[in-house]
Amino acid sequence: MPKLLEVSKLCASYGATQVLYDVDFSLEAGHITAILGANGAGKTTTLRALCQTVRTSGSIQFEGQQLVGKATESVVRLGVAHVPDGRGTFTALSVEENLRLGAYARKDRAGVAADLEKMYQRFPRLKERRHQQAGTLSGGEQQMLAISRALMLSPRLLLLDEPSFGLAPLIVAEIFRIMRTINQEDKVSMLLVEQNASLALDLADHAYLLETGRVALSGPSAKIKSDESVRRAYLGY
Amino acid sequence: MEAFLQQIFSGLANGGIYASVALALVMIYQSTHHINFAQGEMATFSTFIAWALMQAGWPYWAAFFVTIAISFAGGLLIQRIILKPVEKAPVLTNVIVFIGLLVIFNALAGWIFEHTIKAFPSPFPKDTILQTRYFNAHDFGSIGVMLCVLMALYAFLRFTPVGLAMRAAAQNPDSARLVGIRVSWMLAMGWGLAAAIGAVAGMMIAPVVYLDPNMMSGILLYGFAAALLGGIDNPWGAVIGGFIVGVLENLLGAYVIGTELKLTVALVLIVGTLTLKPNGLFGKVVVTRV
Amino acid sequence: MNNADRKWLWIWGAVVLVALVVLPFLVKNYRVFQFNLVLVYAIAVLGLNVLTGYNGQISLGHGAFYAIGAYVAAVLMDRAGIPYWATLPVAGLVCFVLGFLMGFPALRLEGHYLALATFALALAVPQLLKFKKIEGWTGGVQGIVLNKPDPPFTFSLFGQPLNPDRWLYFFTLLVAVIMFLLAWNLLRGRVGRALIAIRDHPIAATAMGINLPMFKSLTFGVSAAFTGVAGALGAVVVAFVSPDSFTVFLSITFLVGVVIGGLASIPGAIFGAIFIQFVPNIADQISKSAPWAIYGVFLIGFMYLMPTGVMGMIHTVRARLRRGAARPSGQR
Fold first, then answer.
1. 3-class secondary structure, A165
2. How many domains does chain B have?
3. What is the pLDDT of residues C24-35, one digit of tens each?
4. pLDDT tens digits, one per residue of B51-69
5. Residue A87, pLDDT above cutoff 70
6. Is the CB of A82 less than 8 angstroms away from the CB of B164?
7. In the CATH hierarchy, which fold is given to the domain comprising A5-89+155-235?
8. What is residue B255's DSSP assignment?
9. Which of B171, B172, B179 sits opposite A104 (nearest CB)?
10. Which are the contacts of A222, defined by CB distance < 8 A and separation ≥ 6?
11. What is the pLDDT of residue B288?
């Protein structure tokens, strides 16, 4: 089966500072893949590189299309949704406006309406607050909103940047449970960046470990989880 | 008493114009976080275009709407071609570019249309039902036009997907890109809309103050004062601010200072607002993280 | 700097000095007048640069301080018989106080807002100068006509006499040198660094103990003082003041001079002054009917090609040459 996403020799820089050095990884359709690593390893940059919001060189093939050199808006319209770190919510707009914006690139109005209902069913708390200003939601609710907004695109690839950040463990557990559901029911492939390695390894099928901008380790998450020396050396537990 | 009411109504009529200019400024500020110093000159140039069309025989409303369309296209093109290259440049560079535009439009207007003062017709002639005791027909009509413009803009921004996308792009361009909004084009549209609104303001004020290349410079200042008073990021505030400035200008001019120092009044208003209530009467306080 | 470099510096310095002294006698009177204006504008642009370039406060209103300085000089000379050279310090002081006061509302304003407020100042001052109630002092719309001062001694070089314009050339040159030295002295030490710190990281600057409001207001005052002195000098050189000589376009012109010359640069003020004095003439030659349009095109073009101004371009070129000469070791 051809891979959904194939990345090879990916380099990325912020201005004159290079952050990623010849990163290779790939993602199979329907899978959840995790990118792990310490602070500053380049995990967020990897997701930004996929969306072309930083300067990159190398090759990013998504469903056969080359993403490097495309504008961010065009990458998104190909079916790649990004839930950025910090959530990127439109805080001054209402919950419903945020969700509608998620579907901005879509032309099928009936499908959009149906998806909107589905989001509200899945996240009843969002439905309660649909006309409330998004900035007034709690951290967990904003994360749910951010994920729902990304899903409104009906994407084939969902990029998530540290979804557990700043959230209480109970909320995090709920969110990760929902992510598994989304993957299994809606067949959305996911690329997950997480500092919380154990959470990520529980959810993901496959994992890559970044260290100062390079891939240090990769493999099925079950194997990494069970390998104690790897866990101690790289993941700190 | 009657004179006092006259002053107030006349102030409201002028206020409508200031409100339009303020609205145009707020539109550009909201989408780009820049203040368009060339707004006045662009509006004057648009008014000249309308004048030229009417000189060529076009009926008023045809010239009116075509001028709006041309202004929209012009504003859009200016953003795409001239402003996009300096989008990410520091504030000062942008200020100089705006000033360059100001100077170019002013000079072009003088060159193409000459500096002689011209009369500009009003679509609301005096001998109609609109002429009432306190408002003359044109004042009444121009407030009406201004309110229509405001309603249309509000409806567009609030209820249409493109309007929503524009608001999103203005608030958070990075997130807007992540939902597939072409942010650059949203900026360009913001400019187009502002140029169109400016054109309407110019065409409404020209019958009152007569058309010449320097028509708008004082008005621009009042528009600024109004936009600041209302809160530079608040379209409703801009409109209310415009009416307040119009009435104040007239009252102060008639009863306190005399008409010679009107611009000083504007200056005091601006500096006063910025000192005492920098977010305006209705603006939101923005807290920036260190 | 080693001895060989020092020797070259002295030689070049002497050459420049001789050239400067001889220059006014080699050219026609009108050119001398233009040079005088360049020197006057250089002081004004320098003043604005202290505020905008070094301290990051954008002012579109310095034409107002120039006008006030000019009128102070004119009124003192015409109505009170004060000699021309004595009016300069008075103009500077008056403008310092006004600038300092303007600094307080300016404290709350950033970027566009400040540009806006000062723009209002620039638009309001000419109207204020025409105000009928103070016409007795200001001469109203007609302004005040002055006499150019006679040179204090007779002198001739290359057959050209030392006339008022040429005398004024030396006078303005002297004042310019004094003002530039003052600025250089002020900016090179802790004060200069403090100004730049306030410009780039105001919150950090406060955290490090810099009294932001006092500093920013003082900077406004000093900047206004410089421009006020320039205005007074300008009144002497042109021998005429009127409200319409000081429109908002003058304020715009000064800001243009700062940006073209290069922000936070003392020598840049000279390049800026040359630009604002001579480019309008060039624009005039290109298009008799719409010279300002050409000027505007020049402005926008400059922002695309040389956003850091002439000095910025010089620095970039120098840095590239230096980098080219020294190859870094251990390149990836």
1. coil
2. 1
3. 788 888 888 899
4. 999 999 999 999 999 999 9
5. yes
6. no
7. Rossmann fold (3.40.50)
8. I
9. B179
10. none
11. 43
What is residue B90's predicted lDDT score, i.e. its pLDDT? Answer: 81
**Mean pLDDT computed over B236-243:** 86
Tell me whether B270 touches chain C (CB under 8 Å).
yes
Task: Grade residue B285 by pLDDT with cuts at 50, 70 and 90.
Answer: low
Q: Is A57 left (phi over 0), alpha (psi -120 to 50) or beta?
A: beta
A109 token code pair:
């109005």
Kindly give, in sequence order, each residue whose CB lies less than 8 Å from that of residue A226, ignoring residues fewer than 6 positions away: none
B280: closest CA among B214, B220, B236, B216? Answer: B236
CA distances from residue B30 to A97, A177, B157, B238, C314 in whole angstroms, order as listed: 18, 39, 12, 12, 37
Give the whole-angstrom CA distance, residue C224 versus residue C218. Answer: 10
* Confidence (pTM): 0.80
Tell me what the pLDDT averaged over chain C comes to.
84
Tell me the chain B residues in contact with residue A53 when contact means C-beta distances shorter than 8 Å.
Answer: 174, 177
Q: Is C82 helix (H, G, I), strand (E, B) or coil?
A: coil
Q: How many Å apart are CA B104 and CA B87, to the nearest integer?
A: 20
Q: How many CA atoms lie within 13 A of B234 on its CB side?
A: 20
Determine, yes or no, domain membership for B212. yes
Question: How does DSSP classify residue A134?
Answer: G
From residue C193, give the alpha-carbon distance in Å to each of C210, C269, C312, C315.
11, 19, 18, 19
- For residues B95 and B33, the answer to whether their CB atoms sit within 8 Å is no
Residues of A in contact with B165 (CB under 8 A): 101, 104
Structure tokens at B217: 């410079």
Per-residue pLDDT tens digits for C1-19: 567 778 888 888 888 888 8
Type of residue at A66 = Q
Q: Are C143 and C242 in contact (CB under 8 A)?
A: yes
Q: How confident is the model at residue C331 (pLDDT cuts 50, 70, 90)?
A: very low
Residue B30 lies in domain? 2-125+133-276
> From CA C123, how far away is CA C247, in angstroms rounded?
7
Q: Does B100 touch chain C (CB under 8 A)?
A: yes
Q: Which of B94, B113, B270, B290 to mutate to test the interface with C (most CBs of C within 10 A)?
A: B270
Q: Mean pLDDT throughout C72-79?
A: 90
Residues C235 and C40 sit within 8 Å (Cβ to Cβ): no
pLDDT tens for C243-291 read 888 988 899 889 889 988 888 888 889 999 999 898 888 877 777 777 7
Q: Is C141 on the interface with B (CB under 8 A)?
A: no
User: B81: which DSSP letter?
Assistant: I
Summarize pLDDT for C192-231 with one digit per residue, the tens. Answer: 888 888 888 878 888 887 787 888 888 899 999 999 999 9
pLDDT confidence of residue B226? 86
Chains with 3 or more CB pairs closer than 8 angstroms to A? B
Q: Is residue B218 part of a domain?
A: yes
CATH number at residue B262: 1.10.3470
Quick check: ipTM above 0.85?
A: yes
First to last CA, chain C: 34
* pLDDT averaged over every residue in chain B: 83
The answer to whether the CB atoms of B264 and C119 lie below 8 A apart is no
Confirm whether B168 is domain-assigned.
Answer: yes
CA angle (B91, B184, B159) in 5-degree steps: 110
CB B68 within 8 A of CB B53: no
Strand partners, A12: A20, A56
- Report the half-sphere exposure of B28 (CA within 13 A, side-chain side): 28
Q: Which stretch of DSSP H or E encloses residue A148?
A: helix A139-151
Q: Is B2 exposed, middle or buried (0-12, 13-18, 19+ CB in 10 A)?
A: exposed
CA C321/CA C332 separation, integer angstroms: 21
Residue B263, domain member (yes or no) = yes
The residue ranges of DSSP E strands in chain C, in sequence order, are: 144-145, 156-157, 160-161, 240-241
For residue A90, list chain B residues with Cβ-Cβ distance below 8 A: 168, 171-172, 175
